[in-house]
Design goal:
mainly alpha, 12 helices, globular
Length: 204
């Protein structure tokens, strides 16, 4: 009955919020983030399109909105590439000013994940986007509490899935693994070996 419940909720969404306001809007973002796995690509893109203006502002954007965007694994590659590029640029800008950027890093960790939580392998972003993120973020201290989410980001984004189209170049994976080890990540976990990743994918 999950599809029926999602369909009913989608119809309710069409009526709009009964009590519009900042707090209820934030709760709506959290709702769609938690239900992202039940949303089709079309619905995920509709929700993002409705908030595009806010996301483009890059100032005072609700963290819940950014995290919602990151949870939408089914969006098309063109839109995902645009979001990733925009979020990378925003992180560099915020981090350079020592401002909070954890929500953007968390979203990037999902958008660049090599092993999606609910979408298929066809949804995985190309390795070049991960390389772009690493080049942009290598200048920052990943041990800084404000930037620590980068560790989770690259643990997900640099995992090997035994697919040449999706795996990062070995040299880049090694660079990332070395950086993660310096952050205190266990060597085996940081290395993201192909064997362990294949087991992780199979075991869900």
């Amino acid at each position: 009955m999950d599809e029926l419940r999602i369909d009913n909720l989608w119809r309710v969404r069409g009526d709009g919020l009964r009590f519009p306001g900042k707090r209820t809007k934030l709760q709506e973002y959290i709702l769609w983030r938690r239900l992202a796995g039940g949303l089709s690509r079309e619905r995920q893109e509709i929700l993002l399109a409705a908030e595009d203006g806010k996301i483009r502002q890059r100032k005072s954007v609700p963290p819940e909105l950014i995290r919602m965007a990151g949870s939408f694994e089914r969006i098309g590659h063109e839109l995902k590439t645009e979001l990733v590029g925009r979020f990378i640029e925003t992180v560099v800008n915020l981090a350079s000013q020592q401002k909070h950027c954890a929500s953007y890093l968390a979203a990037l960790g999902l958008l660049l994940n090599r092993t999606p939580f609910y979408a298929g392998m066809e949804s995985i972003a190309p390795p070049a986007l991960v390389e772009g993120a690493y080049e942009a973020f290598r200048q920052f201290d990943w041990n800084d509490p404000e930037f620590a989410e980068a560790q989770v980001l690259f643990l997900r984004a640099a995992r090997a899935v035994d697919d040449r189209r999706l795996d990062l170049p070995k040299s880049l994976r090694n660079q990332i693994a070395d950086r993660l080890e310096k952050c205190g990540i266990a060597p085996v976990k940081a290395a993201a070996s192909e064997t362990s990743c294949r087991l992780s994918v199979r075991n869900g």
